[in-house]
Design goal:
Number of helices of chain A: 8
Helix content of chain B: 55-70%
Distance between the termini of chain B: 40 Å
Largest sheet of chain A: none
Shape of chain A: globular
Strand content of chain B: under 5%
Oligomer: heterodimer
Strand content of chain A: under 5%
Radius of gyration of chain A: 19 Å
Mean pLDDT of chain A: 90
Structural class of chain A: mainly alpha
Number of helices of chain B: 1
Number of strands of chain B: 0
Low-confidence stretches of chain A: none
Chain lengths: 206, 43
């Protein structure tokens, strides 16, 4: 059987520590998650910094981590497609958010209102969305993740309202609000079947 | 030196098992790629 680098490292670590047989795949899984997400985060922040929208990129990533962690969503089959998409999407959302926030205030409000409506609707209709590689087996867990998804989207909306209240004190708050709203829209889109088809199409291009 | 290496390795193993459990308890991590969750962590 062919092992990847994470599996080989995990095997060595579990042998050195006399771990149970089923712990090696868990170690490999954790290493793969850490490496892929760490690299994606680093490159996303770098692109955001180079585009001059680092604060907006951080806001988008934080919203996506909170929301996607609980609600799930569509995924690419390849880590490379994922890396390129993440590197492009979050700085692009931050750039668009900063651009919208610089315009008339009505555009910011429309974006935020759309995020609230679409976010709650997507959670109500689709969340949590699992994948064949990470299935949600237990119905109890599915119900719990659904409840937490409502909670997360509620907290994010409350934070957007709080940012609106302090917008006179902190000038960048409108940009952060719009970036967060765009990130909510993006993650909500990822909960739909359309997003699953989109990722499938991107995988086939690879 | 060897003792320090083994204690660091032990801590790394504990941290990795913790991360694997936290990750498997959620729907997914933030990225757009999901590695295969081990059978022992599927719930």
């Amino acid at each position: 059987m062919k092992h990847n680098i994470y599996q080989r490292l995990a095997l060595i670590m579990s042998q050195e520590n006399d771990l149970a047989h089923d712990k090696a795949p868990e170690l490999a899984y954790a290493m793969e998650i850490l490496f892929i997400n760490g690299l994606n985060l680093l490159l996303t922040m770098l692109i955001g910094y180079l585009l001059g929208v680092l604060q907006g990129t951080i806001a988008c990533v934080l919203v996506a981590i909170a929301y996607r962690h609980i609600a799930g969503g569509a995924h690419a089959k390849s880590p490379w497609v994922c890396a390129v998409a993440t590197m492009i999407v979050f700085p692009a959302l931050a750039y668009a958010g900063t651009y919208i926030a610089a315009g008339p205030h009505i555009y910011s409000w429309i974006t935020e209102a759309a995020a609230v409506i679409v976010g709650f609707y997507a959670v109500h209709k689709y969340a949590p969305v699992d994948t064949p590689k990470a299935p949600i087996v237990s119905p109890d867990r599915r119900k719990r993740l659904k409840r937490y998804s409502y909670l997360v989207i509620g907290i994010l909306v409350t934070m957007m309202i709080a940012l609106e209240l302090i917008s006179t004190l902190w000038l960048y708050s409108t940009a952060i609000q719009v970036c967060a709203a765009l990130a909510i829209l993006w993650v909500s889109l990822n909960l739909t079947h359309t997003a699953a088809s989109l990722w499938c199409m991107l995988d086939n291009q690879h | 030196m060897k003792k320090t290496f083994y204690s660091i390795l032990g801590m790394a193993v504990v941290a990795l098992i913790f991360i694997a459990n936290v990750a498997s308890a959620s729907a997914c991590m933030f990225g757009h790629y999901q590695p295969e969750v081990p059978e022992s962590l599927r719930k």
